[in-house]
Design brief:
The protein is α+β, with helices and mostly antiparallel strands. The chain contains 25 helices and 13 strands.
Length: 686
């Protein structure tokens, strides 16, 4: 049950009445109910709020009594999928008594009095926040501390909630202290205290809709007029489109996709249903690309474009209807990759079917390149988020090429719509541009040209992003793999954990060396007239590959160790491809095996992004080194093709069973367990 609390303390707006004659606080309570709150309570002070929060078992919505906003603003805050704890952030100029905010990459990284932020404020706290279940104990501690004029001295606080007196001046940052002369209202002090405890808070910005904090009747009248002047439903439809998207999506999809969103909503389609339809469109395009012939290729290009439109619509529909779920987000991520690689398969078959060359080799290369790129994208995003949460040290605060690149990137991103802005967003070859390139080259030329174009642009984009990100990462010097389960995201199996640890070389160096052996074997097999004769070299390549396991137990805290998962993915894919080539396995079988591996690895990254636990049967996937050992045995026995098919089928079954267990069986068991006390005469926990 979602609890909403209206905190009435410490604001002159508590006694204001709206144009309809009702108290502003009562209207806020009604809006919170419309926003999804099951229960709305009023708290006269922070101590009372702390008592209410202590008994809560679901996310809690909190507002002051000075907020005038569209109901949609509160609904967006209540349903925001960006993280468990989210604060409303406004672009209004900070005023005395309000908490100023500095945010980076959507995270609140500093909060406090305006002068304490040294001119770095990017907004002001909007007087409303949603706090996730795991952060409720911290919220209660912050409320008690703020009520007593005390704030924690470190983050996170201990079980006893140790606090220290408020200093006379200062701001609130990660592990900092609050300003006595800064935030004045109770909700501002509460938010400042929550930030002081180091809570990860995401920012919810107001765009197109209206939200203002008011202090007097004149301000209330003006804010109500601003709210009335905006068509809420029309604004929400426009808000369903990403604020900053890529060039192709912005100008060739989002200009008309909102009409599809509204139609889908009227037809009561769910985002998951739209995702399923987009998969069918991509599958149809892949089949037509494989069939060949100009009509089929043009038809496939049209289906691919429409499939991409639906790929955008599913997310827009979720934002418009506010239907978010961890399952939907995970499924969308997995479907995006599956659709793209099915298209690569269709193109590869089409090249071979038309006698234009070895299409499967090109399709495998495109899939491998794109997957390794995605692995670096994921981990660089984690790196950037972690860097935003940490204060700059003296060694990386300023100066150096990394600092200049970071400043230049910030300037370009701020110059929305400029040529440099669009070049920066396009050169990295995002999915919209990839699908547009495929559709155009297939319709105008043939699948061979399409695959070559994807590979060339993909390699250039990888080189560009890799070089710049490496320089910026060395400047940031923020470890990320040591903040998560490195064994899980390395995809280590039992063998890697048993290998000795070689610390001086570092895990990234060892992972790169691991990829060199399979790469040399693959090149040799491709250049050889009789690749089957290189069967003896497979165990040698395996030994080089296993070098990557020597860094499994080492600390992954180097400035570039975020590249380790991508390097290990590349090493395993190259080894599997090399085994297939040496064992004379058909191209479609090698593609299928690597495709199953990518599904397994995308599952891990999707869970990382959605903050999910490991797949239920992760241990049964054997780890990258265990799978490679089995393929080596198959190659030595002369049954590489059978080995690829058998191991691929096994991994696919493990993946499917894990999905069923994680998303259907376990939630159903939890639901049954939660209602069991009701059957025994007790009240069901909420």
């Amino acid at each position: 049950m979602t609890l909403a609390i209206v905190l009435a303390a410490g604001t002159p707006a508590a006694g204001l009445t709206t144009a309809t004659g009702e108290p502003l606080a009562d209207r806020l309570a009604a809006q919170l109910r419309l926003a999804g709150a099951d229960e709305v309570r009023f708290a006269a002070n922070l101590d009372e709020l702390s008592d209410l929060v202590t008994t809560a078992t679901a996310p809690v919505l909190i507002t002051g009594t000075d907020l005038v906003a569209h109901t949609a603003v509160l609904r967006h805050l209540a349903t925001s999928p960006v993280g468990p704890t989210v604060a409303l952030v406004l672009g209004d100029p900070p005023v005395p008594g309000r908490t100023a905010v500095r945010e980076e990459r959507g995270q609140v990284v500093d909060a406090g009095a305006l002068d304490a932020l040294d001119g770095a404020a990017t907004g002001v706290f909007g007087g409303a926040l949603r706090v996730g279940v795991d952060d409720l104990p911290t919220l209660a501690a912050a409320a008690r501390a703020a009520a007593s004029g005390m704030l924690p001295v470190a983050a996170p606080i201990g079980p006893a909630g140790d606090v220290a007196p408020l200093p006379a001046t200062g701001g609130v940052g990660s592990g900092g202290s609050a300003a006595a002369g800064g935030p004045g209202s109770a909700v501002d002090r509460l938010f400042a205290g929550l930030a002081a405890l180091g809570t990860l808070i995401f920012a919810q910005r107001v765009r197109l809709l209206v939200a203002h904090r008011v202090e007097d009747q004149a301000g209330l009248t003006a804010a109500e007029a601003a709210v009335t002047a905006v068509d809420e439903d029309r604004a929400e439809l426009r808000l369903s489109v990403k604020e900053k998207d890529d060039f192709f999506s912005t100008y060739f999809v989002s200009t008309w996709s909102p009409y599809v969103v509204r139609l889908s909503a009227r037809l009561r389609l769910t985002p998951t249903g739209v995702t399923a339809i987009s998969v069918l469109f991509a599958l149809g395009a892949a089949v037509l690309f494989g069939v060949g012939g100009r009509p089929a290729l043009v038809g496939g290009a049209v289906l691919l474009y429409l499939g991409f439109v639906l790929d955008c619509v599913d997310g827009q529909l979720a934002r418009y209807t506010r239907h978010f779920s961890a399952w939907g987000g995970w499924l969308d991520t997995m479907a995006d990759r599956a659709k793209e690689y099915l298209v690569y398969a269709g193109l590869g078959f089409g090249v071979s079917h038309a006698g234009l060359g070895n299409g499967w080799a090109l399709a495998i290369a495109a899939m491998t390149l794109q997957t390794v790129r995605h692995m670096t994208d994921t981990w660089y995003g984690v790196l950037h988020d972690e860097a935003a949460r940490r204060p700059r040290t003296a060694t990386n605060a300023s100066g150096g090429i990394g600092d200049r690149l970071n400043a230049a990137s910030t300037r370009v991103q701020a110059d929305t719509g400029s040529v440099s802005y669009w070049l920066k967003r396009t050169v990295v070859f995002p999915i919209g541009e990839r699908w547009a390139l495929i559709a155009l080259t297939v319709a105008l030329f043939n699948p061979l040209v399409s695959l070559i174009a994807v590979l060339v642009w993909g390699v250039l984009a990888f080189a560009y992003t890799g070089a710049l990100r490496t320089l910026r990462a060395r400047w940031m010097w923020v470890p990320v793999l040591d903040t998560v389960d490195a064994t899980l995201h390395r995809d280590d199996g039992p063998l890697a954990r048993w290998l000795p640890v070689v610390r001086p070389m570092g895990p990234l160096t060892l992972a790169v060396i691991a990829a060199l052996g399979p790469a040399v074997l693959l090149v040799g097999a491709l250049l050889s007239d009789a690749p089957e004769g290189l069967r003896w070299a497979v165990p040698v390549a395996l030994l080089v590959l296993l070098v990557g396991g020597l860094g499994a137990g080492a600390a992954h805290n180097g400035p570039l160790d975020w590249l380790v998962p991508a390097a290990l993915r590349a090493a395993e894919y190259l080894f599997a491809i090399a085994v297939g080539v040496v064992g004379a396995a058909p191209g479609w079988l090698i593609f299928g095996y690597v495709f199953v591996l990518t599904v397994h690895h995308y599952d891990l990254t999707a869970r990382l992004e959605k903050r999910q636990a490991a797949p239920p049967l992760h241990a049964a996937s054997l780890g990258w080194e265990g799978r490679s050992v089995l393929l080596t045995l198959a190659a030595i026995a002369g049954i590489a093709g059978i080995g690829l098919a058998t191991l691929g089928a096994y991994l696919l079954v493990v993946f499917v069973v894990s999905v069923v267990l994680a998303w259907f069986v376990r939630p159903a068991r939890s639901a049954r367990a939660s209602v069991a006390p009701a059957g025994a005469g007790g009240a069901a926990p909420r």
